[in-house]
Amino acid sequence: MPQGDKSKYTDKQKRKAAHIEESYEARGVPEEEAEARAWATVNKQSGGGEKSGSGRRKNETAKRADRKDSARRAAATRQGHSPNRGSAQARRESGSTSLAELSRADLLERAAELGVRGRSRMRKAELIEALS
Predict the structure, then answer these.
(1) In the list 19, 24, 61, 98, which could disulfide-bond 34, CB 3.0-4.6 Å?
(2) What ranges does the record give for the region Disordered, renumbered to this chain (predicted)?
């Protein structure tokens, strides 16, 4: 049996672990391994025992700050400003950039615009060579 006391888990978490364990056993996984994997899955999904409810770990001040930040970013997006706009994107739009300064994602975008075949499998250096 996996380590630890299972009494702290909710009934829902216990049912979920039992269902996952049955699924693993049906696929031929040994019983002990299936149980360990099931509890590992429950822990990964819910963070362990007695963790029901959303946002339990944040205090009101942190929640308020997150809401304010989210509202600020939404307002900036509505006004046409991207909050995550990087300098590589700004250089690309200004037209004064060398290909080496761009990220691989930016190079992929340019390659798509030009119809470069096989671009999705290319490394950054290969993309630069194909775009040159």
Answers:
(1) 24
(2) 1-102
